[in-house]
Amino acid sequence: MSWRIANECAERRFGSAARKQIIMFLADKASDDGSGIWCSKGTIQRHTELSESTVKRTIIDFLREGILIETGRRQCKNGYTVIYRIVLERVAALEPTAEPDIDTGVTVNPVQPEPGTGSTVNGVRGSRWTPNHPKTIHKPPTRRREAAEEVEDLEAEKILAAYPEDRIRDRRTSLRLISGAVKAGVEPDDLLQAVKAYAKESEGYTRSKVCFSDNWFKMRRWEKGLAQIQADREKAREAEAKGRASLAEWIHECHPLCRHITNRQIEDLIATKLVTPEQVRAAGLQP
User: What ranges does the record give for the region Disordered, renumbered to this chain (predicted)?
Assistant: First the structure.
């Protein structure tokens, strides 16, 4: 048993209670470097009281995410047991469970009008200003920033709502990953369409094939949908350009089909400089 590994895992978020329960059980069997874990999935299932399918799926997820690696096999009465190692670097990269420290300062005496010299500990002076000094200006959150954050939250909720309901797991992590993608420059509407495309594509999948929302967004599997959206837009632009070129050719040739060209199309052709107002008039149309 390693208290170091157990503490490291206890201070990180793993996405669900089942995942946390399994990693804590494995940490209890590990050496200080995370190695030497050999226990069957049946043993994990009996001690955690989770279903066998949950244990198997979670171990596979940990291996795919790099949190666990296989280091060997050990013979047992039923064949062999896989030996695992917990990768501390991957665990340390996970989101911590602790709330961020907020430095609010400590007020011992009433607020003074002039800056103090700070307390001296071992010859080192403290801060000249306390956070609640009358000349310390705290900038409150602006209404504009609060409104922007509210819009971001609503967009993230809307995107997650498009994900298959039975596969939504760890809403907090999923929403955080969605917000991170949007802040990185992904258009919310594009991300929403990518989620809807995956939901339609994976409709009817068996449980062994599905991907839960926290992992789906963590592995950036929406990028496939974005690539398809970009490809469809490019095709649409090419078709639109081809259509404009055909209309412009009719006008240049004064083709009889020119009478079917609408005023909006004429304005578009002139704006893109494919035809001139004079050419439009020569074809019997009004620019």
Answer: 103-145
How far, CA to CA in Å, does 237 sit from each of 68, 112, 240, 241? 46, 67, 5, 6
Rounded-to-integer distance, Cα 55 and Cα 57, Å: 6
The rounded distance, in Å, linking the Cα atoms of 97 and 12 is 5
DSSP for residue 101: P
Q: Which helix (H) or strand (E) holds 79?
A: strand 79-86
Nearest to 21 by CA among 73, 60, 59: 59
Which residue pairs, CB below 8 angstroms and at least 24 apart, start in 127-132?
130/105, 130/106, 131/103, 131/104, 131/105, 132/105, 132/107
At 82-120, the pLDDT tens digits run 899 999 888 888 888 876 555 555 555 555 555 555 555
Q: What is the pLDDT of residues 165-198, one digit of tens each?
A: 888 888 889 889 998 888 888 888 999 999 999 8
Q: Which of 20, 36, 21 is nearest to 69 (CA)?
A: 36
Q: How many residues are given for the chain? A: 287
Residue identified by tokens 């495309």 is 197
In this prediction the pTM is 0.41
Alpha helices in 93-219 (DSSP H): 143-161, 171-183, 188-201, 213-218
Pairing of strands 37-38, 79-86: antiparallel
- Cβ contact 8:91 at 8 Å: yes
Distance, C-alpha 4 to centroid of its chain = 30
Question: Each residue of 14-29: pLDDT tens digit?
Answer: 989 999 999 999 988 8
Q: Quick check: 85 and 34 in contact, CB under 8 A?
A: yes
pLDDT above 90 as % of the chain: 13
Query: What is the β-pairing status of strands 79-86 and 124-125?
Result: unpaired
DSSP states of 56-72 = HHHHHHHHHHTSEEEEE
